[in-house]
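Entries read chain and fold; for instance:
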Amino acid sequence: MDTNLTWLVHGPGESLGFETRESGYDVFLGNYRGVYPRKLAKWNEEKDYWMYSIDHIARYDIYAFMTKIFEIKIKEFKEIEDCKDLSDDQIRKIVREKIKINYIGHSLGG
C-alpha cells in the first residue's frame, strides 16, 4: 500500500529524495508490482502480473530498474561528451566504470 512517494511526501528540506538530489546525486524512484500504476507494464495475462515472489522481484524487477538507470546514464553521457570516436561498447564500459549506484529501500523494497 506504499509507493515511491514516501521518499518525497514531506517536500524539499524534509524528504530523503529531495535532500539526496540537492546533495548532487541522481535520484531514481521505482515501484514494484502491486503498486499503482500497473498499467504501464505489458503482461500477456492479467493474472501473470500478480504471480510473483520476493525471489522474482530480486531476480527480475531490481535488474530491470538497474538496467533502465544504466540506459539513462548512457544517454546522458552521449549528450554531454564528444563520443564521435567511441563505439557503443566503449561508451558502455566508460559509463560502467564511472557509475556508482547506491540503493535505499524500505519494507518489501528493502
About this structure: The chain has a mean pLDDT of 84.
